[in-house]
User: What shape does this take?
Amino acid sequence: MLRYFAIFVLFCVALPDICLSCECTNTERPCEYLTSDAVFVGRVLGIVAVKQPMEKNSWTPGYSMRFAVEEPPKGDLGAGVTIETGGGGGDYGTPLPVSGRYLIFATKGKSGELWTGMCSGNQELAKYPTAERILEQYRELIRR
Assistant: This one.
């Protein structure tokens, strides 16, 4: 038994990306992100560290991100919206840098607040030269 444990430890040391990485499931096709309650293009205006409630009398570190909404293809959003996320790491949170321009997919939480995470399908638009084409594909899918 000790031998198997030693092999497992060596495997994890040799290949830490496999042992320690998380995996987003149920997102095999981009259109699956359209089940989100809100889809929008926005720029991050600010980010504040907060305590996100988990259960009664317990919380976890997280962030509230304020966005300027440029285009809301889906969802009843105003000119600005606040999106909640976890702290990152093992909770799938995705704090985004201020001033970044993103295509955001968010779902409503238990209290009606919007949440997003690393498996939500968010895309930084400045990174991709094909950003406008990606946006047009999502616009078309939403219109259908």
About this structure: The chain has one domain: 31-143. The mean pLDDT is 79. The two ends are 57 Å apart (CA to CA). The first strand starts at residue 38 and ends at 53.
